[in-house]
Design brief:
The chain is mainly alpha-helical. Helix 2 runs antiparallel to helix 3. The structure holds protoporphyrin IX containing FE.
Length: 218
């Protein structure tokens, strides 16, 4: 029994380590791009990059559902969704804290956040943060048991709402920057892949009127 628990624990450790490594790689790629394009990297840009890392990780975590179910050889990626999403959440926490605490000169609160140019971005970011907290609470083992897997999966679909809210949040300033274009393309690909997966599942279970099987899978 103990051996079984230890094996499960080391599997979870490995998922954490690999998910953090993916987060670090995304951070370094975005930081490298900013360093090359701006010629400077300070706390202001470091904060932007935490925001982008959070965005790409949350999107990636959602996108792995489609990859895992559409490509049977890649089914193993499904186990990464929770950990990549959690690393994305912590990257957002760092981004939020740096914005609110260390960058008071650039973003004085509350005047910056409540200005007419930023108010929608602020409302979207606060809602996104709240939804992410709900998703994390719902992903605790005891909550999954309490909710049942169908309801739990429904709650996790709120990740798509987070994607839309964060897009509203980052489009509030300089809408045409290349990183923003990349972010929009990435989110669109993930959304379309999910729509495609839904179509595949509906065709597969067309003959089962209740659709119960597809509910169990996703
Ligand atoms: C309490 C919640 C949040 C606060 C206070 C906050 C604060 C900010 C601020 C001040 C900016 C402007 C940065 C700049 O102009 O350099 C920004 C941009 C951004 N934020 Fe947030 N944010 C929050 C939530 C989030 C969340 C939940 C995500 C992603 C999951 C996120 C991702 C981004 C991205 C991608 C940008 C665009 C950076 C750019 O302009 O290149 N933020 N945020």
């Amino acid at each position: 029994m103990n051996e079984l628990n230890n094996m499960r624990l080391s599997k979870i450790h490995l998922l954490w380590i690999k998910s953090i490594a993916i987060g670090v790689l995304i951070y370094l790629a975005a930081a490298g791009y900013i360093l090359v394009s701006q010629g400077i990297f300070n706390i202001y840009f470091a904060n932007k990059v935490f925001g982008w890392t959070a965005f790409f990780l949350v999107n990636l975590s959602m996108g792995l559902t489609s990859v895992g179910y559409l490509i049977s050889r890649w089914r193993f990626v499904l186990g990464y969704r929770k950990y990549i999403g959690l690393v994305g959440f912590w990257s957002f926490v760092v981004h939020g804290l740096i914005s609110l605490v260390l960058l008071q000169d650039e973003f004085p609160s509350p005047s910056y956040y409540l200005s007419s140019q930023q108010i929608w971005s602020t409302l979207a970011s606060i809602t996104a943060a709240g939804v992410m907290v709900v998703m994390i609470i719902a992903s605790r083992d005891f909550m999954i048991k309490k909710l049942g897997s169908v309801n739990w999966r429904r709650i996790l679909r709120l990740g798509y709402l987070v994607m839309v809210l964060v897009i509203i949040h980052f489009l509030a300033k300089n809408p045409v920057e290349p990183l923003k274009k990349l972010g929009l393309i990435f989110a669109a690909v993930i959304f379309l892949a999910r729509v495609f997966l839904e179509i595949v599942i509906r065709i597969k279970y067309k003959n089962q009127p209740t659709g119960q099987n597809s509910k169990k899978i996703l």
